[in-house]
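YM 10:42: Transporter substrate-binding domain-containing protein sequence, as discussed on the call
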Amino acid sequence: MTRRTLTAVALAAAAALALAGCTAGGDGQAAGPSAEGYVTDGKLTIGTGQPAYFPWVIDDAPESGEGFESAVAYAVADELGFTKDDVVWVRSTFEQAIAPGPKDFDFNLQQFSITDERKQAVDFSSPYYETTQVVVTVDASPAAGATTIAELKPFKIGAQTGTTSLTAVEQTIAPEGGAQIFNTNDDAKLALQSGTVDAIVVDLPTAFYLTGAELDGGKIIGQLPSTGGGDQFGLVLAKDSPLTEKVTAAVDALRENGTLDELAAKWLGGDDTAPVLK
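YM 10:58: structure's back
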């Protein structure tokens, strides 16, 4: 092979490598978005946690459409014109998803509260869910059999100071002995475990975590009626993503037509999760 031929081959190989680096993220960064703004043309790439937990995703299988956030993701996909077969799932940690820089997803959902600080690094859609306050107890507590707000009034019920949870205890439950106030949710949890209080009030994500991972015999009695003021969850997109407006419009449509409320009632408010107390 001549030197000229060798040079031509080398140049062609270099060009191919350069092209691969630009399109496939060869330096470890996420690939650049398509001309239409999507990570992959003709596909909607959705990120969630590793693992993804009940009841947001059932059995850590977001592709099933089972669980509140999995169902919301597919509803958004449908609004954007994608079929279920067009959806590709990827995994990330919570911190990776909200860190500055390129993303390997079009949007990510794993209970991201919308905050001004996070908006400096990523975009958010409009909210698809606002957290409610939830009454938590343990099986051994005398409050474990309560099914209504009225039935909770005789019990000792606590919450962390300075929170919407404490406001909910004081204004919605109004226990006969007054609210039991703690410096932190950990202090409230320990008081519940020791029997110092009969129940505590926390936000919904914290309630699922406490009963699923931290409390021995933990039990959700139910959600208190929403009075606003909870954390709002939004879909996370790359900063200045060309898709932010489209995704927000999709979420807005699902809110206005009642789909988000229906999905929340099905996956977050059922008798086996956190029924709404009356």
